[in-house]
Amino acid sequence: MYLRSVSRVSKTFSFKGGTNSPNAGIRIIPNKLVSQSDVWKMIETPHDSLRILRYPVAVLSQYNGSKPTLTVIYDQYTDAEGIKVIYYKTPKHFNVMEGIPCELPMDAFDDLVTGAVDLYVQYSAGAEARRRQQQEAAQKRARED
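Given the sequence above, the corresponding structure tokens read:
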């Protein structure tokens, strides 16, 4: 599993420069993924009420029923307008010949097949090169004997 998230913000402490800055139009910042057990290190306490979070913190909480919950924490200097979550996982086993459907969308199959063919061609070319090197090494040893 791969999980990443970004925040679209109108202001944050992490922005560099003013309106004339080259970064002035950039309003997307990455969220820092932390473990739920480390959240206490990030949030404000009565003794540390002006804590600055350079990047919003994303926490994947324990399963709530059947679905996990993603919580995004940000400081008083950040105005979040939206959150985007990018989640990749390994697809379940599928076999077209046996009628076990694939959970990926149909428009992904061209990329899958093209990628598989490219991998096979690269592997075959590498295997052929290794076989040729082994033959040349064997011939060289035979000449030296």
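Residues 109-144 form the longest helix (36 residues). Try to locate this feature in the token string yourself.
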